[in-house]
Design a protein that fits this description.
Structural class: mainly alpha
Distance between the termini: 27 Å
Largest sheet: 2 strands, antiparallel
Shape: elongated
Number of helices: 5
Oligomer: single chain
Radius of gyration: 19 Å
């Protein structure tokens, strides 16, 4: 698993790429942009081009960095406010720093997954708007499946890491 710093560097690069992605598509998008699609890919809600690109860009950048910002709070929060399996054991003073470092790294990985997923969703949305056709639902469902598998894998790693210690099982 990459370090938290490496994940944050990748997230920063992804955020910069998101801004470039939106700049690239800006001149190609229609004035009225489809922002919601049904399961068969048909557009059923629209926004102005400035509002749609601002919304998608903010989702691509703000939500992942918000997840990272939350991790900064964990070192200040009392144990009772941290939801972690077997938290009394894993957040005991002698294990707290290492445990929170693990959680922070895993949340950075989730933030990066969110950013990549949103970049891909934005791409599909923009392409559908430019073509004036439906959203590529097969591609969207594939992306969603990959995203969910990645996030569930990270959650499984967190649950495995914070299982009951051997002496307590």
């Amino acid at each position: 698993m990459p370090s938290r710093d490496a994940l944050l560097a990748a997230l920063a690069a992804t955020s910069a790429a998101a801004a470039a992605q939106h700049a690239w598509y800006w001149t190609r998008l229609p004035d009225r942009v489809a922002t919601h699609f049904t399961w068969n890919g048909t557009a059923d809600d629209w926004m102005s081009k400035p509002a749609a690109t601002a919304l998608l860009l903010s989702v691509q950048i703000v939500i992942p960095w918000f997840l990272v910002a939350i991790t900064a709070l964990t070192s200040w929060l009392p144990i009772s406010l941290i939801n972690l399996p077997n938290r009394e054991y894993w957040l005991a003073p002698q294990r707290r720093r290492e445990s929170l470092a693990f959680v922070n790294r895993e949340l950075a990985a989730i933030a990066l997954a969110v950013a990549w997923f949103m970049a891909a969703v934005s791409h599909l949305s923009f392409e559908a708007n430019i073509a004036g056709g439906p959203l590529a639902t097969h591609a969207m469902l594939t992306l969603l499946g990959v995203y969910l598998a990645v996030v569930l894998g990270i959650v499984a790693r967190i649950l495995w890491r914070f299982r009951k210690p051997r002496a307590k099982r």
